[in-house]
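Notes from the 1:1 (GR / supervisor)

We went over the backlog. Supervisor wanted to see one worked example end to end before approving the batch request, so GR pasted a single chain during the call. The sequence is below; no edits were made to it. Supervisor asked that the structure be written out right there so they could see what the output format looks like.
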Amino acid sequence: MGHRNHVLCTSWSPDGTKFASADKNGVVIIWDPSTGKATSTIKAHGKWITSMAWEPMHLSANGVCERLVTSSKDSHAKIWNVRSKTCLATLSSHADSIECVKWSGSGWIYTASRDRTVKVWAADTTDRNGL
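Structure output shown during the call:
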């Protein structure tokens, strides 16, 4: 089991127990680096995924790395629980493709878009309009 289109970005979880890869079909695959096998597949976006970032370890519940944020050409970023394959939040207020997403050590998510803006999001709030 693997990707069926170009792999565009990858990211190690902060605890080193998971490796994520994302492709042009909008699919994220979570891999177990100790076995090299896929542990889950998430159809994350309708367009290709441009960037992704894990929640920093010190912010993770019980020190377990389960949350990943993805960004896409569809102009949305999404926060995922990779264990349950659940979308926890959709961050949308960009007018064009999001090219880069970063999760800060203080709980903020930053998105940079082709619309020439950078948005700042609180990762743990219901406000999904960006600052």
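Supervisor's comment: The first strand starts at residue 7 and ends at 12.
Batch request approved.
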